[in-house]
Design goal:
single chain; 1 helix; alpha+beta; 4-stranded antiparallel β-sheet; rod-shaped
Length: 125
């Protein structure tokens, strides 16, 4: 009696499901860290753009500003600026994203923090 086999056995299907589960277990944590890197890149980008805006404002007014509307600057979606300080000799700011607890810092001149060199952006580890 010759039977033609149509379809897969239950064991073959279970093996495929297990393999897909293992691959998903490997990929999901890597995807989560990639998203956090993207959030930090957004924070850094906003700090770089704000530094450019600060220097442009300074060239016209001979003083730095903490008012984002004076700087003609808007943050990216989800990013906020805090800890801003400015005087005639420097500025500093902290950026954060609502999707991560890590923050990035930048400063220049008299306002640059001890952990941040002039114009260098640093982030929490």
């Amino acid at each position: 009696m010759s039977r033609m086999r149509k379809g897969f056995t239950l064991i073959e299907l279970l093996i495929v499901v297990v393999i897909i589960g293992i691959l998903a277990a490997i990929a999901i944590p890597k995807f989560a860290s990639t998203k956090e890197k993207a959030y930090l890149a957004s924070e850094k980008s906003d700090l770089r753009n704000m530094a450019t805006s600060e220097e442009a404002y300074f060239s016209g007014n001979q003083i730095y500003s903490t008012n984002l509307s004076d700087l003609n600057f808007t943050t990216s979606q989800g990013v906020s600026m805090s800890g801003m300080a400015a005087d005639a000799k420097g500025w500093k700011a902290t950026s954060s994203h609502i999707a991560t607890s890590k923050q990035c810092y930048a400063g220049f001149g008299s306002q640059a923090a001890a952990t941040t060199l002039d114009g260098i952006i640093t982030c929490d580890p």
